[in-house]
Amino acid sequence: MRPDATPSHARIEPIAVDRAAAQAIATVRPLLPLETSSADATVSAYVVASLASLEAALARSRLSQPNVPVVLLQACDRPPDEADGSFVAIDPAGMRPEQIGRVVETLARRFEDEKLPPFLSALLGYVARRNTTFACPGHQGSHFLERHPVGRRFVEIVGRNLFALDVPHADPMLGDMTGREGPPAEAEAHAARVFGADRTYFVLNGTLTANKIVATALLAPGDYVLFDRNNHKSIYNGVLAMAGARPVYLETTRNSFGLIGGVPSRCFDESYVRDRLRAIDPERAAAERPFRLAAFQLGTWDGTIYDVHEIVSRIGHLCEYVLFDSAWVGYEQFIPLLERASPLRMELRPGAPGVVVTQSVHKQMSGFSQTSQIHVRDRHLGERTHKHGEAAFDAALKMHGTTSPFYPLFASLDVNARLHGAIGPQMWAEVVETGIEIRKRILQRCRLMRPFVPSTVGERAWQDHDTAQIATDRRFFEFEVGARWHGFDGYDGAVQRLDPCKLLVVTADTHPSAGVERPRLPAGIVAAYLREQGLVPEKSDLYSLVFLLTPATRPEDLERLVDALVRFEAHHCANDPVSLVLPGLHAGDPARYACGLADLCRRIDALYVEEGLAGLLADMFRARFLPRARISVQDAHYRFVRGAYERVPIAEAAGRIAAEGALPYPPGIFCIAPGEVWDGPVHRFFEAIERLLDEAPDFAPFYHGVHTVDDASGRKRLHVHVLSEDA
């Protein structure tokens, strides 16, 4: 980096003042009226001129960030009882506004420096040295790029600060990121305290890599793993393909909306689990702890989240460790409603397994894309196991982690921890309340779509209850046994619940009451409309949409979303031309879409029904229909990389062994894994997808491991890789 490549500080944080203080201080900082402002985590000081205002300022500081300076412009013999070390009294007699401003500026700057998290603070300190470097990265704080207009334009788009913070990792001043020393270790230790782990590891290549690190640290060939069939492909790859462990699969549920549910409650029974293992290895099934690891998706993409207390109390004693892949959550420990969903907050008594949690910090928390973290709780297992776990994880991190870390990614993990440590519960309480309010708005304004929540709680409609009550009462997000509104089989009302931070909207009544039948809106069409309106959902499936709610979600944007849903329903009722409602879609294939919106919805819905997609989707993950494993995932992968495979049309794949797994991405859940046989519902499902791809290509899902080709007649055909029969 050249000496002039120093990051600028564009934002000046405001000061909150009462009316009298605003007249007494001169500062370049923005002034927020204390009388009209709420608790604001961006305020760097409170300045007040009266004892009445002081009480309000102290209350606001406790809600936002306890150490923010609170300055009283009065002579004061002793601080008020409720004040802490951040209280300062200044006698303004004889002082000019500029002098008062300088005192407040010093306090505010000190507060801003002290509240920076460990790694970011060290990184900014390093950059401030303005070293001349002859080490990588080669862009040297963006100067390389400035040699050409394209490079200069790229710097303008991305911002010079990002390049300034991409500093040499050859310099030991910032600590060893691979050895977990210095500021990186301090940042991870701070995150562990915030989230409730014995130790935390930051990972820069997503939870895909984090899960493989866990597998490498804990597993050896032949170890048995109790395996949630909803697990992400990274767990299949890390646990089965790389580590060579042996899975005992647990089935999972899907409902008629296409929503991904969790493992049925009956599967968390010791007898059931031992019976599943006994069919594979009778001797191992009799062991006290037959499983080295259990691996579960703590929260599904579609908002089912587990009560981890129930899981650990029912089957935890059968496992040495339990991995909860929390890629789609991570905030549960900051929401009282989800307290029992947090593996990092539950008490681990003697005999409990070790607990590992992986989190995608970029999904609904504040990290840059690809940021992830691993939390480990194993101190209760004893000093020897704890120390061994540290050594194994350190080695696995060196094996999978990059030796060329992008420091802004690491800093964003550090900042995420500081945000959650300072105001995590406050931020997520607002998210939960905002989510409740928008669900009420959808229920009020929409006729053909509804939020995925119970119709009634007690004897009143869900939306008729007070928001504050809904935000703290688990009944409003529970899956009542056998309830028609959710349609999931096998839930007992205790193990699974609904994540309030996933806004799920269902677009059909798939089990209509007698005499009441509403039009069914394929969610892919609704999603296409929303995107043309500049509103991007996280996901759409058969008859469901998913919208992620975070502390960044603004109520006004959610209101725009509701307005768009209402407009779509109006267009549908009028059967307005697709050319009017979805002009981008129509322009891509005018002949195919020369129809009304309601006509298009009926056509796609009929295709779903004729092919039985909802039933096939559910059956693929039921225990009795899970694809048969002919050889292990690892063996199949090795044969694949050695070329012992062939590509065949999906119609000819029946009875053949998959050389490559097939999965929708996202969310990355294998429908069939390598080594399993193409047969039954999974084979019929992909034949149905082939028809959908040919007749409605704009609404066909995207799959890894399934390859699209055009046949001689121009029709879309799916091909898959299967092992050679003589292999």
Automatic annotation (TrEMBL):
GO terms for biological process: amino acid metabolic process. The keyword Lyase applies. It comes from the Bacteria. InterPro entries: Orn/lys/arg_de-COase, Orn/Lys/Arg_deCO2ase_major_dom, Prn/Lys/Arg_de-COase_C, Prn/Lys/Arg_de-COase_C_sf, PyrdxlP-dep_Trfase, PyrdxlP-dep_Trfase_major, PyrdxlP-dep_Trfase_small. Pfam families: OKR_DC_1 (PF01276), OKR_DC_1_C (PF03711). One of its GO terms (molecular function) is pyridoxal phosphate binding. Keywords: Decarboxylase, Lyase, Pyridoxal phosphate. GO terms for cellular component: cytosol. Residues 358-372 form the Orn/Lys/Arg decarboxylases family 1 pyridoxal-P attachment site domain. Belongs to the Orn/Lys/Arg decarboxylase class-I family. This is Ornithine decarboxylase SpeF.
